[in-house]
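Let's practice the habit of predicting before peeking. Look at the sequence and jot down your guess about where helices and strands might fall. Then scroll down.
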Amino acid sequence: MPYPEMMIHGMRAELASLGIEETKTSEAVEAAVKNTDGTLMVVVNSVCGCAAGGVRPGIAMAFQHSAVKPDRAITVFAGADIDATETARQYFTGYASSSPSIAFLKNGKLVKMFERRDLEGRPPQVIGQALAAAFEEVAEGNEAAAA
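Done guessing? Here is the structure:
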């Protein structure tokens, strides 16, 4: 049974306020993957403490302080958007399901992954810096592909 929307609304809003698009259905995830030119960041949001204390604030820091950002960013909520989360995770080939997690896709292919173990216990500043570096790393791949 999914988490009640009333319980997770604020957790969703933290990412939505950054312009990260909520994808609550499998179809919405598939459409985002198929209709994104460049880099797609996929955030698997969660109710856990590491999402609240580190991941969501770290994402906010990265978005606020990075000159380079993904071309598009979406989120699914583990434990709430059950089908959408499963669909997103199908793109994370070679990685076990974990939440929270953050993936970067290009043309539907995984190019960078942050699993829970990469995020858990880290302060927002560290996560923000790692994401900002990932934004640049993945963007450089976009430029190389365009050249």
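How did you do? Residues 143-147 have pLDDT under 50 and may be disordered.
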